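Quick one, probably user error.
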């Protein structure tokens, strides 16, 4: 999945809202950004503080970051109108859409360094465990990530049984949820979990945690040495989750925030690196049509 033309993506994103911005806008008193789980709250807040400052300066209202313990905290915040923007995984967006199609709208997607906008779910184990392939893991303890994670649950729950020829509950020993990507990575690294799954763009080197994703964040934080982990499974390409904004925000606010996000990598690469979990090429416009297959997959698999 590639965008053939990334140049002027920010201008395109701004133009998408230009007509709506002509309408009379209400004022907002604050702007609230939800930070999806996957790493500890302190690191999430630190990585996104530069974005908070930029949005606050742009909008001229207090801007706050919220880092709930799990994915559902951000999802419920968006559904309840208590958050104004978030970077969701595709499955998280699907849950919001299935519960309330009018709650949020997808506006931007992260573009990888090679121009693609997909990523993969990776199964992994400790290198010294003797597990080198998925087939080697029969009877081992296995952990999904968060039940609302695309790469940490939805896609593996569909693709792994197809690869194994049986449900994961029949193949593995104990099957559980770690609670998030960081918990999965640390759990395997420390030997508390035999096999788990997390996400990355699949570009660059395994020992670096690839170019972007949860592994890269864990490496940057000094939590793991990737040479002590081994990849045992890789999903098909998953569409990158969207940046979403609350649909009933004033159109001028949406216009300004989308323009800021679209230009973040060119304006402040260091900030973009922290916000977007590693190296990126930029941001490009996206809409609901890119996620219809994920919405349907979630409806069939999870039912909500």
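Nope, works fine. Designed sequence:
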């Amino acid at each position: 999945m590639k965008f053939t033309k990334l140049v002027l993506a920010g201008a395109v994103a701004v133009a998408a809202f230009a007509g709506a911005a002509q309408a009379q806008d209400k004022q907002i008193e604050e702007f609230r950004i939800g930070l999806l789980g996957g790493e500890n709250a302190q690191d999430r807040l630190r990585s996104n503080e530069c974005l908070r400052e930029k949005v606050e300066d742009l909008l001229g209202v207090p801007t706050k970051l919220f880092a709930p313990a799990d994915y559902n905290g951000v999802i419920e915040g968006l559904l309840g109108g208590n958050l104004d923007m978030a970077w969701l995984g595709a499955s998280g967006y699907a849950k919001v859409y299935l519960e309330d199609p009018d709650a949020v709208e997808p506006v931007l997607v992260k573009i990888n360094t090679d121009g693609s906008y997909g990523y993969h779910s990776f199964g992994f184990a400790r290198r010294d465990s003797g597990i080198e392939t998925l087939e080697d893991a029969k009877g081992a303890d296995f952990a999904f990530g968060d039940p609302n994670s695309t790469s940490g649950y939805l896609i593996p729950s569909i693709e792994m049984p197809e690869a194994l020829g049986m449900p994961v509950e029949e193949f593995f020993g104990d099957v559980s949820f770690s609670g998030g990507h960081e918990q999965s990575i640390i759990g395997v690294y420390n030997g508390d979990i035999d096999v788990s799954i997390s996400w990355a763009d699949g570009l660059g080197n395994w020992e670096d945690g690839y170019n972007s994703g949860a592994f890269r964040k864990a490496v940057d934080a000094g939590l793991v040495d990737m040479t002590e982990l081994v990849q045992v499974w890789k999903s098909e390409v998953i569409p990158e989750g969207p940046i979403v904004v609350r649909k009933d925000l004033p159109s001028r606010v949406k216009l300004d925030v989308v323009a800021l996000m679209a230009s973040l990598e060119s304006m402040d690469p260091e900030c973009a690196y922290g916000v977007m979990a590693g190296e990126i090429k930029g941001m490009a416009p996206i809409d609901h049509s890119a996620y219809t297959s994920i919405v349907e997959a979630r409806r069939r698999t999870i039912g909500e």
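Residues 41-59 form the longest helix (19 residues).
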